[in-house]
Every structure is written in structure tokens, then in C-alpha cells.
Write a structure and sequence with these properties.
The protein is an alpha+beta fold and about 425 residues long. It folds into 3 domains: about 160 residues, Globin-like (Orthogonal Bundle); about 120 residues, Alpha-Beta Plaits (2-Layer Sandwich); about 90 residues, Arc Repressor Mutant, subunit A (Orthogonal Bundle), CATH 1.10.10. It is about 65% helix and about 5% strand. It has 18 helices and 6 strands. α12 packs across α13, α15 crosses α16 and α16 packs across α17. The C terminus is likely disordered. Belongs to the CdaR family. It holds the Pfam family RsbRD_N.
Length: about 425
């Protein structure tokens, strides 16, 4: 400790004698310190973190300890400083203000020592030097003990808060078990509106433990948009407030920065209680993109893709059932017909545009489309057949590794 190395022999005796005199003025010293703190520091004057009674008690406890230490009747023990540091950290009082309050208190003690050594029989420059050294050594000791305890406590509080926040985010995305009371608590802790407007984002992780959207919550907060996120082994998911018109553009810009994988976004929804359902739709949107690609899809941008991705097994079964005659053809025939059919859908059924895309004559496209219709036994003018073909093509595009497999059997046969 600094204090132990400052006072030795005669110096300690001089300081102890002065301390006895100052201690007789302790009541006035306490009140003067309280008034000085409140006059110079609005945070204490307004009782923002500490009431007047709490402040007075804290000043008394700390000054009594200081005087006992300076008198030499008690070994230096910084337990009171640590207790104050912990209490103020739990109350959320700012550390700089806390240290300033301590300096004000010890400065008041020093002023009393100055008054004693500057007049009467105690007039002694060496005594003043010794007292000054002792008091400011205590300031250093106090500041070190208080700061260390304050920071340790703040870290504990932040860790506990983060653990609770993570649990509440998990409950929000899990849904089901969240009661109205729980949702209110979640909204309060996460600083989200219970009946606000949101989207859910699901971003694919590049590898376990690595965020695809690093610092996204802070980046959104910097743009005045509240959000809450959690990281799983395969996804980073978040619910983002859409409280104003600029939110959509801000989110798109931030998600697009340094994009490294697939990102799915839910439709816009209202009510925090609908987050788990929106997460499902965001995952569906993500799954509508081919693995290994980079891009961002919002569920309502491609409802058919969302429908297919939400039921992979049924979609694969549909694809094999509808397209099996073409899938069973030799490789070149199969690939040409599938590419033609897909291009025809992407060109909104225009033979001319399809031919331009595939660099061949429109009559060639008409011949291929006629053959496709014959092979599949389906009409390219019947809306019902077109709908099934579109869904089958989408499923085959999303789950290409299944195109070579035998058609799934109907379990009822």
C-alpha cells in the first residue's frame, strides 16, 4: 500500500496528533463534505443514484475510517472503499464522479490539517508535509481499491445482464413458452416495443462460433435502430425494429456490407410475440438459396421458394413425381429439356425471350416445349399444370443433389 510506505517514526506521530485534533471537528467535517459534494456534483445534488441520507452515511463511514487510519489506531484497511465501490457500481453511479467525491472528502480533511499547522502551537511546515503525504497516499490507496472493485462489480453486472439477455433472446426466438408477462419482461430488458413492427434476420455462419454479421447490433444502434441477436452453431439470428420508414433501407445496407453467405429475412410483422414464427420464415427464405451461394432473400420476395423450402421432403417428392419422365432420360436430353423449361418459366412463358436466352431459334424452343409437354403428360397452357411444374422446378433447383435418386415411394402403397 502507498500509505504504509509514507509514514514512519516521527512523521506518523505528528500526523496522529493532528488527526486527533481534526477528529474533534468530525461532525462539521462530514456536513461540509456533503455540502461540497452536492454543490459541485449535480449527480449527487439531484440524488440520481444516491439519496442524501445514503450520501451522508457513506461520507461519515469513509471519513471515520480515514481518521482512525491517520491516528494510527487501525491498520490500513480499504474494506470501506471497496464496499462503496461495489455499492455505487450496483447503483449505476459513474466512476469518475465517485472518485471526485472521494477527493472532495479527503481535500476537506487536508484543509483542516492545513489550518492546524498554519496557526498556534501546531505551526509546523514538516508536520504539514507529513500530513499532506499521508492524506494523498490515502487518496491513491482509496482510488485504487475503489476503482478495482467498481470495475470488477461492473463486469459481474454486465456478465449477469448479458446472461439474462441471452436467455430472454432465446425465449423470444423459441416462442411457445413465453407468456404475456414474460414477453413484457423480454421487451423491457431488450428495449423493444411489445407491439412494435419488426423483421427477423437469419444469417448463415461461415463456421462455428464466427459471426457472419459482426457488431451488427451496435451498427444498427448507431443508426438508431434497436435489435436483439443471438449466435447458434449454424446461424446468427436477430429481430430488428422497423419503427420508421428508413429502417428497410438501413437494414439492407448493413446486411449487404461484406456479405459472406446466405441471409434470409422474414416478412415485416407486428408484435414481439410473433418473433418465433418470423424466424421460421427467415430460415425458409435463407434455405431458398443454393448452399454455398451468397445473397439475401426476404420471404415475401419469393413465396413459392418459401413454400418449397419450408417442406423439403414433400417438395422433393413433388419434383420427382412431376418431372420423373424427363429425369429418366439420358443425360444430354434431360439437361436440355430441363434448362429449356426453366428458361421458359424465367422468361414468363415467352418463346421469343427463351430462344434469345438459350441462343437458338424460336422454332427449336417450340419443338422442345412440345416434347416436354408430351414427356410429362402435362399442358403448358393449363394453369394447374403450370403451377405444379413451377413448384417442381423450384424444388429441383433448391435440392439438386436429389435429382438422380429414385422417385420417393408413396408410403401408403
Amino acid at each position: 500500500m502507498h500509505y504504509r510506505t509514507v509514514l514512519r517514526g516521527g512523521s506518523a506521530a505528528v500526523v496522529a496528533e493532528l488527526a486527533v485534533e481534526v477528529e474533534r471537528q468530525l461532525s462539521g467535517l462530514i456536513e461540509a463534505t456533503v455540502e461540497q459534494i452536492r454543490a459541485e456534483m449535480p449527480v449527487y445534488h439531484d440524488a440520481r443514484f444516491v439519496s442524501l441520507a445514503e450520501l451522508r452515511t457513506s461520507v461519515r463511514n469513509n471519513l471515520e475510517y480515514v481518521m482512525r487510519t491517520l491516528r494510527g489506531t487501525e491498520e490500513p484497511d480499504l474494506a470501506q472503499a471497496r464496499a462503496t465501490g461495489r455499492a455505487r457500481a450496483l447503483q449505476g453511479a459513474p466512476l469518475p464522479e465517485l472518485l471526485r467525491a472521494y477527493r472532495i472528502g479527503l481535500t476537506e480533511v487536508w484543509n483542516r490539517f492545513v489550518e492546524l499547522t498554519a496557526s498556534g502551537e501546531h505551526q509546523d511546515l514538516r508536520g504539514l508535509v507529513a500530513a499532506t503525504s499521508a492524506i494523498w497516499a490515502l487518496v491513491d490507496d482509496y482510488a485504487e481499491a475503489l476503482t478495482t472493485t467498481y470495475r470488477d462489480t461492473t463486469a459481474e453486472v454486465m456478465l449477469a445482464h448479458q446472461s439474462r439477455r441471452s436467455a430472454l433472446v432465446e425465449a423470444l426466438f423459441a416462442g411457445g413458452a413465453a407468456t404475456e408477462g414474460t414477453l413484457w419482461d423480454i421487451a423491457r430488458v431488450l428495449e423493444l416495443s411489445l407491439d412494435g413492427t419488426y423483421v427477423v434476420v437469419a444469417a448463415e455462419t461461415p463456421r462455428v462460433g464466427h459471426e457472419p454479421l459482426p457488431q451488427i447490433e451496435n451498427r444498427l444502434r448507431d443508426r438508431c435502430h434497436a435489435s436483439a441477436w443471438r449466435l447458434t452453431p449454424d446461424l446468427q439470428v436477430g429481430v430488428v425494429s422497423m419503427r420508421d420508414q428508413s429502417a428497410s433501407q438501413v437494414i439492407i445496407e448493413l446486411l449487404g456490407e461484406n456479405q459472406i453467405g446466405r441471409i434470409g429475412v422474414s416478412p415485416v410483422f407486428t408484435g414481439l410475440g410473433n418473433t418465433s414464427r418470423a424466424l421460421h420464415l427467415a430460415r425458409v427464405a435463407l434455405s431458398s438459396m443454393l448452399p454455398g451461394t451468397t445473397g439475401m432473400v426476404q420471404f415475401n420476395e419469393s413465396p413459392l421458394a418459401g413454400l418449397v423450402a419450408s417442406a423439403p421432403e414433400a417438395s422433393v417428392q413433388l419434383a420427382h413425381h412431376v418431372l420423373r419422365p424427363i429425369l429418366d432420360l439420358p443425360g444430354d436430353d434431360r439437361n436440355v429439356l430441363l434448362l429449356t423449361l426453366r428458361a421458359w418459366f424465367e422468361c414468363q412463358g415467352s418463346t421469343k425471350l427463351t430462344s434469345e436466352r438459350m441462343f437458338c431459334h424460336p422454332n427449336t424452343i417450340r419443338h422442345r416445349l412440345k416434347r416436354i409437354s408430351e414427356e410429362l403428360g402435362r399442358s403448358l397452357t393449363d394453369p394447374a399444370d403450370i403451377a405444379e411444374l413451377g413448384a417442381a422446378l423450384r424444388a429441383l433447383h433448391m435440392f439438386p443433389d436429389t435429382s438422380h435418386l429414385p422417385s420417393p415411394r408413396d408410403p401408403l402403397r
